[in-house]
Amino acid sequence: MIAYSILDALGSKYIEKVIVSTDSEEYAGIARKWGAEVPFLRPADISGDNSMDIEVFQHFIDWMISQGYDPPEIIVHLRPTHPIRNIEDIDKMVSIMIKNPELDAIRSVAPVKETPYKMWQFNEDGILTPLVTCDIPEAYNAPRQILPQVYMQNACIDVIRTSTIIDKHSMTGSKIAGYKMNYDFDIDTEDDFIRAEQHLAAREKLKSGGKLKIVCDIDGVIAQKTPGNHYDQADPNYTNIIILKRLHELGHRIVLHTARGYSTGIDWVDLTKKQMNDWGVPYDDLVFGKPDADFYIDDKLSTLNILGSLCE
Asked: Which CATH number belongs to the domain containing residue 211 in this structure?
């Protein structure tokens, strides 16, 4: 995973030096192999699980000064735990920082999968209180569609003015610009790793001219979800249908799958086929279950737009 971040940094038109900070000789060797500089090993006391980014970057800046180097004006932080990113995003973020000297930092963000307006905390009496509120009364009872869009930092790219670290002792400062991304491949769990691995495998297959077998869930991706699984009341998601059409036109095999009727035993086959036909959804197979594929898309993995851009 270190290699992907190093190669992204080397591919940027703005980044002049690529330096890896690590306390591991093994990782240092890997980093050098892929073209990064590792001029020091980081002390163990700032290399633990609870170590803060600010400690790592303060150590780096102090090292540069001690060696007689002038610290850079801008630092780009690329975490190896986010191995998939577009180099163009790095350059755009650096360009924004250069053009806006009042900014302390720029942080990449992606839409959240779960809205915080429906999250709760317990108080000391065991009573639920909303985690966050907004100008919508009882937002936790409101439809998700009318709630404010919320973004979460995705640990992909941070661009920091070095003076923010030195003078404000912060990795962000107080004036932080957000850079919206439609992807999030931050790896915290085994499932995250599998998802990133799947995406990279698909990317390599496309580079070699291959075509993908794409398995797409219906409900939550092609059809809007309905309360109580009343599938006959579902509305189409035309944004995703348009992307599927383009993928099919490019020669990729589209397999639709659904769990409709799995628990209840209700036969939804005819209705599902009619909906797909009426909505203009292209597909090669319709499976009531989950077949093998190169790429899976469901409501928990809302990356159809990413796959569409990848295939282009």
From this structure: 3.40.50.1000
